């Protein structure tokens, strides 16, 4: 409760204050008590207290002023209280003045003007004469001399101040005064089945069910509704890519394309008829307008670079085009790779290359088949379309990753791992029976970077043989096909690339090791190798109508292989038929150049498809070529035996991921064309060369 802007605590403090007798302490107590008990004069109370708190008059003057000025109200006044602030009259002399209040503060001789506490006289009702005020007049008393009531005083209502008596009834007393009769129902309680109670219980029930479902129900539901790993079309390591994850985004992104026909889920082996193989990966390319820019596809990525393979800083491919992701898309149910005569990065042509490097790989007995329409026509040469595979430790187009890795496939510690395939100029056959265009040198390769001769503690991806030596690692190549034109007819070269090399690049192509079912359509390729690679290749005529500018039909190409030694093999397929087979004993040890046998590639292989041009691959008929040239791929499918599924780019027996991560720049920066010069990394030390 506040009194004229002063709290009761303030009033009590004023009453209880102790001043010197000359300060009028006892008089102040009397004034405060008197004012607090007379609610009919609030204006007087406010002004008196504000004045007293500023400067107190002598006690006898205060007492005299109160006795002369204050008249106790009679009964009529109580029933009809006076206006606290009557309407001022037009005569200035009749206005209530507070000048005497100022004189009260300065007159110490005893004369106190009677107007100090003069009560207001009753005048016309403010309510009835509200329109009679002038512009600067108000219905409130003018205190005179420019003085106004202090801001801490609360101006009171028209008909008196608030009753401070604790016995005065107020409208909210029922909230504080209990009534046994009125509150009987509440005091004795009630039933809990109220609308609010039901809502509270319902809310708690929903929260409880939600928590139970989250922490108990969800694990159970996941356990009983999860599909086996075979649901994703992958086995062994679970149908995953090199990141170890199955794509979780919605859409057709499983290892097996959802649009692959069910009758294509199994196939008979081309090499061993009657042996059934199971589909482990497929892409039907049915979705229109797919993008193969980096990050757009879970398995394929198009390159953005000028393709070139460098060996000892010598360009090996001499491509005429710039590979651009815009040249690769899907249209009318097929993958389309376009070669156009558009200038790009100072090259006159723009082509396309996509691969599954470090995303999808396979190892073991594998059949890969592709249905392809070759670009151009069957009698104009110069195009270089290809579908091929490479070991995951080398990335096509990134020269630094390939130096000392391609095209090796070797697991022995001998001169075959050394630079130029010689040590101190020996064996002599490796210096005179080689590439005639390079002075008879058999090899210009820099040596196998990750060989079995690697010293312990050197950087090597592993694994390790039982004798403690490292397994020889590399980036071998097996081609599904490379198309060419010869003698006015379309052909495909189906080959594997090898290192180290046989004497004079001649492998042991006996009838047991070289099998060609149809000698009319297929012949041994005259190209057998050079200073940078050895090739085992057979050339086969294609279906002559399955070209872009002819019937635009599709032909099936592929290969089936078993890695390793002994009964290992590679069998190629052209136009849906077995074209030829190489058995591993054909790559046996060659004592003339002092090298051991070379295994059918054991590395995890990834898939590459490209369309370009190169003067190194053959002559180019610029005059008659038609642009744009388009290679169309209807599908690519990969099969393995049901009991020997092995997919993934980082298998435990031939790991790649840790090594790639350690030297990631060599696999992602195409401007680094060599491992040692550009990338600035040394080859691991070789114990055969006395470096351990």
Automatic annotation (TrEMBL):
<keyword id="KW-0812">Transmembrane</keyword>
<dbReference type="GO" id="GO:0005886">
    <property type="term" value="C:plasma membrane"/>
</dbReference>
<dbReference type="InterPro" id="IPR013320">
    <property type="entry name" value="ConA-like_dom_sf"/>
</dbReference>
<feature type="transmembrane region" description="Helical">
    <location>
        <begin position="201"/>
        <end position="221"/>
    </location>
</feature>
<keyword id="KW-0961">Cell wall biogenesis/degradation</keyword>
<dbReference type="InterPro" id="IPR000757">
    <property type="entry name" value="Beta-glucanase-like"/>
</dbReference>
<dbReference type="GO" id="GO:0006078">
    <property type="term" value="P:(1-&gt;6)-beta-D-glucan biosynthetic process"/>
</dbReference>
<keyword id="KW-0472">Membrane</keyword>
<dbReference type="GO" id="GO:0005789">
    <property type="term" value="C:endoplasmic reticulum membrane"/>
</dbReference>
<feature type="region of interest" description="Disordered">
    <location>
        <begin position="160"/>
        <end position="188"/>
    </location>
</feature>
<protein>
    <submittedName>
        <fullName>Glycoside hydrolase family 16 protein</fullName>
    </submittedName>
</protein>
<dbReference type="GO" id="GO:0015926">
    <property type="term" value="F:glucosidase activity"/>
</dbReference>
<feature type="compositionally biased region" description="Polar residues">
    <location>
        <begin position="136"/>
        <end position="145"/>
    </location>
</feature>
<feature type="region of interest" description="Disordered">
    <location>
        <begin position="78"/>
        <end position="148"/>
    </location>
</feature>
<keyword id="KW-0325">Glycoprotein</keyword>
<keyword id="KW-0378">Hydrolase</keyword>
<comment type="similarity">
    <text>Belongs to the SKN1/KRE6 family.</text>
</comment>
<dbReference type="GO" id="GO:0031505">
    <property type="term" value="P:fungal-type cell wall organization"/>
</dbReference>
<feature type="compositionally biased region" description="Basic and acidic residues">
    <location>
        <begin position="169"/>
        <end position="188"/>
    </location>
</feature>
<dbReference type="Pfam" id="PF03935">
    <property type="entry name" value="SKN1_KRE6_Sbg1"/>
</dbReference>
<feature type="compositionally biased region" description="Polar residues">
    <location>
        <begin position="87"/>
        <end position="110"/>
    </location>
</feature>
<keyword id="KW-1133">Transmembrane helix</keyword>
<feature type="compositionally biased region" description="Low complexity">
    <location>
        <begin position="118"/>
        <end position="135"/>
    </location>
</feature>
<keyword id="KW-0735">Signal-anchor</keyword>
<feature type="domain" description="GH16">
    <location>
        <begin position="263"/>
        <end position="644"/>
    </location>
</feature>
<dbReference type="InterPro" id="IPR005629">
    <property type="entry name" value="Skn1/Kre6/Sbg1"/>
</dbReference>
């Amino acid at each position: 409760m506040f009194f004229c802007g002063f709290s009761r605590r303030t009033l009590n403090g004023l009453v209880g204050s102790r001043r010197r007798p000359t300060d009028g302490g006892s008089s102040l107590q009397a004034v405060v008590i008197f004012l607090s008990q007379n609610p009919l004069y609030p204006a007087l109370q406010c002004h008196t207290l504000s004045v007293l708190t500023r400067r107190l008059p002598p006690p006898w003057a205060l007492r005299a002023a109160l006795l002369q000025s204050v008249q106790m109200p009679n009964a009529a006044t109580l029933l009809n209280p006076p206006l606290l602030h009557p309407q001022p009259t037009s005569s200035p002399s009749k206005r209530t003045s507070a000048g005497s209040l100022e004189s009260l503060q300065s007159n110490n001789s005893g004369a106190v003007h009677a107007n100090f506490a003069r009560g207001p006289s009753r005048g016309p009702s403010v309510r009835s004469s509200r329109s009679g005020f002038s512009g600067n007049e108000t219905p409130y008393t003018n205190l005179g001399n420019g003085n106004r009531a202090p801001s801490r005083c609360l101006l009171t209502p028209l008909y008196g101040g608030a009753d401070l008596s604790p016995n005065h009834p107020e409208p909210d007393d029922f909230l504080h005064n209990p009534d046994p009769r009125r509150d009987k129902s509440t005091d004795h309680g009630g039933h809990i089945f109220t609308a609010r109670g039901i809502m509270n219980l319902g809310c708690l029930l929903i929260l409880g069910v939600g928590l139970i479902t989250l922490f108990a129900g969800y694990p159970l539901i996941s356990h009983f509704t999860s599909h086996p790993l075979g649901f994703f079309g992958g086995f062994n390591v679970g149908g995953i890519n090199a990141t170890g994850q199955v794509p979780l985004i919605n859409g057709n992104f499983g290892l097996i394309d959802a649009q692959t026909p069910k009758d294509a889920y199994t196939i008979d082996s081309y090499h061993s008829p009657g042996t059934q193989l199971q589909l482990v990966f497929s892409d039907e390319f049915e979705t229109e307008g797919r993008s193969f820019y980096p990050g757009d596809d879970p398995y394929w990525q198009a390159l953005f670079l000028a393709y070139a393979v460098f060996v000892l800083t010598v360009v090996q491919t001499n491509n005429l085009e710039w590979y651009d992701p815009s040249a690769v898309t899907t249209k009318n149910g097929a993958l389309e790779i376009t070669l156009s005569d558009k200038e790009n990065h100072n090259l006159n042509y723009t082509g396309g290359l996509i691969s599954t490097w470090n995303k999808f790989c396979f190892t073991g007995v594998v059949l890969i088949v592709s249905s392809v329409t070759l670009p151009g026509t069957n009698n104009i040469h110069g195009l270089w379309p290809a579908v091929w595979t490479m070991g995951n430790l080398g990335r096509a187009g990134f020269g630094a990753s390939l130096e000392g890795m391609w095209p090796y496939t070797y697991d022995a510690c001998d001169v075959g791992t050394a630079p130029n395939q010689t040590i101190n100029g020996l064996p002599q056959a490796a210096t005179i029976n080689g590439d005639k265009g390079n002075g008879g040198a058999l090899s210009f390769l820099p040596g196998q970077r990750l060989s079995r001769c690697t010293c312990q503690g050197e950087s090597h991806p592993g694994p390790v043989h039982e004798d403690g030596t490292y397994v020889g690692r590399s980036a071998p190549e097996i081609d599904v096909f490379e198309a060419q034109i010869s003698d006015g007819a379309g052909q495909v070269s189906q080959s594997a690339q090898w290192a180290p090399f046989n004497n004079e690049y001649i492998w042991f192509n006996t009838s047991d090791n070289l099998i060609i079912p149809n000698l009319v359509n297929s012949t041994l390729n005259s190209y057998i190798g050079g200073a940078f690679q050895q090739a085992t290749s057979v050339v086969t005529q294609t279906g002559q109508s399955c070209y872009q500018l002819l019937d635009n039909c599709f032909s099936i190409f592929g290969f089936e292989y078993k890695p390793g030694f002994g009964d290992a093999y590679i069998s190629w397929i052209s136009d849906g038929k077995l074209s030829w087979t190489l058995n591993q004993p054909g790559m046996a040890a060659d004592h003339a150049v002092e090298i051991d046998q070379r295994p059918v590639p054991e590395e995890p292989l990834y898939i590459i498809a490209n369309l370009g041009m190169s003067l190194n691959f053959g002559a180019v008929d610029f005059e008659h070529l038609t642009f744009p040239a388009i290679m169309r791929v209807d599908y690519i499918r990969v099969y393995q035996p049901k009991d020997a599924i092995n997919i993934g780019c980082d298998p435990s027996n031939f790991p790649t991921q840790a090594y790639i991560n350690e030297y990631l720049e060599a696999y992602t920066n195409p401007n680094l064309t060599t491992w040692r010069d550009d990338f600035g990394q040394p080859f691991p030390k070789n114990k055969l060369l006395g470096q351990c």
